[in-house]
């Protein structure tokens, strides 16, 4: 996804700033201009970018920062916070409760992925124990009901719709009533989308909303919408009480910055993102981990402090030495996995790094994650010393991969997956090392 490019550009701007010997107004302005340019190129609305720049300048008042303050970190943190603020309207959206009927209505332009997303949303909740049901109130698009029916059948979710009835309000009400009687606890209403914002679409949406009294209205937006995102999202919000946003097609080549704008326009959080055409390609959206990942930065501001705080004194020099060398070997990964499994102190340090244990061990999935880590360790047990101490993934040619797979009784695919994980963590580690080195160059300690 192209949002990664945005993250890369911002991370580079911050890194360039870190390389400057003295951080003064000029360096800060250059860095902020670079970040603003990247955001604008990714289709974030101009006003949001301008406000962000002004906010950071206000927060990072270089004149008032006493000497010895780590300006680079304060700036990094301010950029991070502002990006989070853009994506977080500050209030959570309504969340349906199991066993209590909730009606959730979906709105959005035709082609945004609304119908697909309705089913993904239903399927996601079904897997977690809800009893969802789908109502097709899209009487405008021929084939809409068939599409919903097909998706619903595949995922074994009850559905309601009609080929004959042309009044979407009537269908929506009948569908909701039917499923309420059946004690379904999550009733999802799909509404018509049109090619562009037109009065008739908004009027119909308003009527369906008034008649079904949804607990939550979700605005579905295609990530490729670009600079039009803000106006479009705002137009929907002005017609109905949008309470949450889902951005689709994040797997594509869209710039994705429109997502930031949509949050601002609707003052509603992004709750999920669509990452493919399949039912499972649907992810919960969390602002902080997303921004951390976007910037490839993790919680660096706290990272070094945490090492000093939680790693036993006798282990600190070794870990810091490894960090300063910047070389992240598979052996080091193995040791960190051992720590994560023990949840020892270094495990805590690693848990601060998005992309490491927070992803390896997402909350609620600890068991699966532990199994995954153990699987990786079994495969590493089949590696030679040279392999474990190498920092070069290219060493792992086909025959080595096959040997490791055979030796550990896993598939080649499993080994490749582990190598991908290694590359991801190595990247995180090298960024941490770069930060640590920059600190040393500038004579700062944590
Ligand atoms: P609607 O007109 O808004 O109801 O849109 P549809 O649900 O019919 O989706 C339009 C197209 O987008 C279909 O081909 C979907 O398979 C596709 N689609 C929906 N969500 C995603 C997504 O997250 N990623 C990708 N790649 N395609 C998606």
Descriptive overview:
The protein has 446 residues and is α/β, with parallel strands linked by helices. The protein folds into 3 domains: 3-87, SRP54, nucleotide-binding domain (Four Helix Bundle (Hemerythrin (Met), subunit A), Up-down Bundle), CATH 1.20.120.140; 102-288, P-loop containing nucleotide triphosphate hydrolases (Rossmann fold, 3-Layer(aba) Sandwich), CATH 3.40.50.300; 298-441, 434 Repressor (Amino-terminal Domain) (Orthogonal Bundle), CATH 1.10.260.30. Helices cover 57% and strands 9% of the residues. An 8-stranded mixed beta sheet has the order 3-2-4-1-5-6-7-8, sandwiched between helices. Strand 6 (242-248), helix 10 (258-266) and strand 7 form a beta-alpha-beta unit. Helix 7 packs parallel to helix 8. The longest helix has 30 residues, at 412-441. 42% of the residues are buried. The model is unreliable at 354-358 and 442-446 (pLDDT under 50). The chain binds guanosine-5'-diphosphate (GDP). The site of guanosine-5'-diphosphate (GDP) has 18 residues, from helix 5.
